[in-house]
Amino acid sequence: MKEYAICIVGGGSRYTPDMLAMLCNQKERFPLRKIVLYDNENERQDVVGAYAEILFKEYYPELKELVYTTDPDTAFSDIDFALMQIRAGRLNMREQDEKIAIKHGCLGQETCGAGGFAYGMRSIPAVVEIIKQIREKSPECWILNYSNPAAIVAEATNRIYSDDKRIINICDMPIAIMDMYAAVLGKKRKDLEPKYFGLNHFGWFTNIYDRETGEDYLPRLKEILKTPVDVQTEPLFQEPSWKATFKFMSTMIQDYDEYLPNTYLQYYLYPRKMFEKQNSDYTRANEVMDGNEKETYERMETIIALGKIKGTEFAITEDVGCHAEYIVDLATALANNTKEVFLLMTENKGIIENLDRHMMVEVPCRVGSSGVEPLVVGTVPTFYKGLIEQQYAYEKLTVDAYLEGSKKKAMQALVLNRTVVNTDTAIALLEDLIKANKEYWRELK
Ligand code: G6P
Ligand code: MN
Known about the structure:
Layout: E1 4-9, H1 16-25, E2 32-38, H2 42-59, E3 65-69, H3 72-76, E4 81-84, H4 90-103, H5 113-137, E5 142-145, H6 150-160, E6 167-169, H7 173-185, E7 192-199, E8 202-210, H8 218-225, H9 240-255, E9 260-261, H10 265-269, H11 271-277, H12 284-306, H13 325-336, E10 340-347, E11 360-368, E12 371-374, H14 382-404, H15 407-416, H16 423-436
Parallel strand pairs: 1-2, 1-4, 2-3, 4-5, 5-6
Antiparallel strand pairs: 7-8, 8-9, 10-11, 11-12
Helix pairs in contact: 1-2, 2-12, 4-5, 4-12, 4-16, 5-6, 5-14, 6-14, 14-15, 15-16
The chain binds 6-O-phosphono-alpha-D-glucopyranose (G6P) and manganese (II) ion.
């Protein structure tokens, strides 16, 4: 079996340690010869790198090379896959995004609304620059991008690198939701095959088929999920805000009983309710900084001091990072031509007949060594079409605002967002966001 070389871009991320442990667990079906960790921050990269050395010595002795670096030329040479998970401006800027939006009476969220807009304007140049650097060194490698806000990043990469068919934009939320469906049905996620349409963080499941029998579980799931469920699928979702999000699904299903919604639709369909739930002094960024981010780094520091993992409380279990397995599934599909179906962001081109051909939709796609082949959806009903078109116009105008440096388009984008709406609010928000993002945004005129 061929052995691959991969680079994790954003190697200092709190997601990296579990991802690395997961790669150890997956070495039979996705064997690696080289793992590169790349980050632009030395201090964080060194911690994850030192942890990785211990991890691989014990759990991946077959691995020939571990590199951790802040030099892009070193990082991107001789790689087959780049897994991109960067956060431009880190959690400090996420906190700003959320708090500035709340200050203006709007929802403060990482990928939705004003927060997602601000993050998008930071992410686009960062992602675009990294792709350019990757292509200089590894013109053929697959770039699996899951940097947020994925909808905007996907729109930007599709416009800027329109001929590059080896950039694939993916989000794990549909997978996490399907893990939950599988749990309530007493099945495994891979027993299920979804039909789905929409945009990233803005879509609906229309069918959930049993891969074997062909039974559609959608009616049963709707019945079950009308009552709030307590998900136990992974540690992240045990956090109070995620628990609340999964529970809120029941309200959405009661109010809209046609399809099953992506969790993120709560922000667009109930912006006032979600706004009222927020704490302007302590947002999700604060929760993550004080919680998962801190714990993950402390755990790595402890392991580095111990010098070992095996035989300690940190020993790798079979299910560590199992949720992130989807990324290996995707890489394996590309490498081994498995033709498995994934929900991916891709240019519409008629897949959803009654929507713009250039829209970056999120739909089921068959994946093999020649790339991504979207599967036909057909037409979508007026209500969904209206919502999607408005949201896509927001996403497109955000990318236009970036490409043209246009303040007018930035304002128009915000007005089109269902969590902002008012023109005066959009104008005031934009002024504050420009000030806060001086270091990151291109100038808007
Ligand atoms: C889901 C979404 C991601 C998001 C992540 C973490 O997996 O698909 O886009 O970044 O949740 O969100 P959090 O608020 O926990 O940082
Ligand atoms: Mn996502």
